[in-house]
Amino acid sequence: MFVKGHPACKKVFRKLLGWPGFGVTCSGTGKSSSRWQILSRGIHTSCQRCTIMPSWVIDSYGNNDVLRFTDNMPFPVINYPNEVILKVHAAGLNPFDVSMRSGYGASALNMRRDPIRIKPTGSEFPLTLGRDVSGVVMECGLNVKYFSPGDEVWAAISPWKQGTLAEFVVASSNEVSRKPRNLSHIEAASMPYVGLTAWSAVKEVGGLNQNNCSNKRVLIFGAAGGVGTFVIQLLKAWGAHVTAVCSQDASELVKRLGADDVIDYKSGSMKAQLKRLPQFDFILDSVGGSTEQWAPSLLKKWSGAKYVTLVTPFLVNVDRLGVADGMLRSGLTIGAKTIKHLCTGIHYHWALFSSSGPSLDDITELVDAGKIRPVIDQVFSFSDVPKAFKKMEEGHARGKTVIDVINKN
Ligand SMILES: NC(=O)c1ccc[n+]([C@@H]2O[C@H](COP(=O)([O-])OP(=O)(O)OC[C@H]3O[C@@H](n4cnc5c(N)ncnc54)[C@H](OP(=O)(O)O)[C@@H]3O)[C@@H](O)[C@H]2O)c1
Question: Coiled-coil ranges per the record (predicted)?
Fold first, then answer.
């Protein structure tokens, strides 16, 4: 549907519609050729007259004190025809949210931020954190074919977009997937970011899948956290033999999730304990640091074995050195490490989270089949978001931290 006329009609048009969730964009340049195209369909919302919404935002980077609750955040708008507006029922937290709050990755993420969206203030602030969402589709852009208002969905929103610690969030439809039927919103919000990170590391980068895992020995560092608890279940669903490294108090948890061997990294020498085991085909490292110096030697040599780490200096390099030099430094680092490890007969890779609705569709199948279940450490109410950040910051996660956004008390 097109409405021809001067761009000023945008305001009038919105007033007539009386609902700002109707995204409007301009195509055409001159006054006479300008036209405004309505990009959304389906006004099935309980909030038809909302212009503002509750949200947790930051106005600068820093410690937990920068988190600010506002009920004045502008309601999200559909700017592109492939976008959807979601009502957030629950939002998952990740260590990345704590890092983002402190400014980690700001340079790289600012480079990716949509100028249309940050135009009113000229900066990324006020910035809403939170990547994971489980909720309901409220509005669909005109090109959205796969979803309709009312669909229950889950997603992990790309980190350069406004986040999910808000009543509503806008996402690209290709970031969104139908929520597993057997999960509540709280349970579903615990999985997308860690699930997609695991998917990227294990399947896309690591090349493991349901057809080639049955005789593989896999070692997981950081097994009790969000990523670890998901990866154990994924690899067990695919038939791998899993050795999990975690603290002693988490060993029952990881065994329940299917880990075959459990190593307590705090009791004696972790390296010596692992050296006593048969060598591995695949290592997933979500801990980093000194582990990377010695752990690759636990892999079978010259057999295609892979060391995939989630701890990469990519965003830090861009923050410190700027985009061009930061990317160059990262390229040189990964290049040097790849060659060094290739010479010893193993493959070394970095893996990154990547937002993807289709990958979430695949994960949904595993969840619906009961092969992967949520592991929730703690649920916080929407008013307790700062407490949830504090808990994340303390570390020692045993699964996931989730915010119940619908119940705000
Ligand atoms: N590259 C990416 O795109 C990407 C995406 C997601 C995550 N990550 C990385 O992966 C890390 C883990 O993410 P997450 O969501 O799983 O974090 P998380 O939920 O906070 O879990 C971290 C887990 O690691 C354990 N741990 C700490 N030191 C350990 C060690 N030396 N050996 C074994 N376990 C150890 C912690 O428990 P205890 O301290 O009690 O042992 C905790 O259970 C993040 O910090 C981030 O660096 C990267």
Answer: none
